[in-house]
Design goal:
This protein is of the alpha/beta class. The chain folds into two domains: 94 residues, Aspartate Aminotransferase, domain 1 (Alpha-Beta Complex), CATH 3.90.1150; 243 residues, Type I PLP-dependent aspartate aminotransferase-like (Major domain) (Aspartate Aminotransferase, domain 2, 3-Layer(aba) Sandwich), CATH 3.40.640.10. 40% of the residues lie in helices and 14% in strands. It contains ten helices and ten strands. The protein is globular. The termini are far apart. Bound molecules: pyridoxal-5'-phosphate (PLP). Its cofactor is pyridoxal 5'-phosphate. This is Histidine decarboxylase. Belongs to the group II decarboxylase family.
Amino acid sequence: MSLNQQVSERLNEFKSRIARNTDSYLGYPVSKDFSYEELAELLQYPLNNLGDPFIDSTWKVDSREFEREVIEFFAKLLRAPENNWWGYVTNGGTEGNLYGLYLAREIYPQGICYFSQETHYSVAKNLHLLNMRHIMIRAQKSGEIDYDDLRETIRIHRDLPAIVFANSGTTMTEGKDDINKIKAIFEEFSITQHYIHSDAALCGAINPFLNPRPAYDFADGADSISISGHKFIGSPIPCGIVLARKDKVERIARSIAYIGCLDTTITGSRNGFTPLVLWYAIKKLGEKGFADRVNHSLETAAYAEQELIKIGIEAWRNPNAITVVLPEVHDSIKEKYQLATANGITHLICMPNVEKHHIDAFVSDIKTQQTH
Ligand SMILES: *Cc1c(COP(=O)(O)O)cnc(C)c1O
């Protein structure tokens, strides 16, 4: 059966619209310079990575062997403790964050979750779903958590386990919370029951290649980390990676075994295609390719910041950030480049596909707007 003419025309129109819309955006942290055509053939199979990627299943139409390699690659990159890590490919950063908080709550049901006001909007929803007690902490202008406020708040509640939801790359300004400073607060108040989840949606694939390396990973003290796959790496389908210390996951696997089922992931059926996408990107790029992408993005961001300042725009960025922050721009420019705007600021995110000529076009549009 084929589509009737009207329906197929509509589909064709949609295809051109999506191509145009993909071409123009500069305000979302989503790479578009990818090609996974070699995988397209696999779309004819009902791939499904049901259940735990590390436990054998009778279902064989899966890509779990590739998924395990993806997890292993990131375990190394994020300095997970040897033989003490576990993870899976998620539907995106939000699911990984939900997973980290879920582990924390199972381990410390009485704990309080602390997170900064610059934390991604999905966290409030996740905390609500998990029915977790939580306290929002002030953020600095950079987007980084206000350590004095965190310290004071934890001090008041020092009799309860502390769960910190740390950001490594906030949505608006790419601010990064320093896990070393968070750990120092735990030590100061002798808090031994603590858990740190690291939300590294964008920067999880960037940080390992930065110098100095931000304090955000397992070696720094994180218990779980979530990364989005469709952001810095790039994927036609949203996806992500969650990693956790295996000893923490075993505690929840046990608690679920108690009610009669052993199930370590959040959803039952899981995407079998996106692990192949991530695997393919890793094989094609290698660590060197990742590092090159990071350097290219940093160069472009430095260029964008400098060119905007030249025309009198108060642009700035955090150290080693690929996000350039600027005051809110005219609606027509916001619309044209799909720029996210909040609290009077907007941003350009110099993903690896962004080149100097994209920046030049943007700066020239701003200039034209200034003279009107
Ligand atoms: C994008 C983002 C998320 C959510 O990730 P999704 O992959 O969109 O679910 C969470 N936190 C931060 C900081 C993000 O930038």
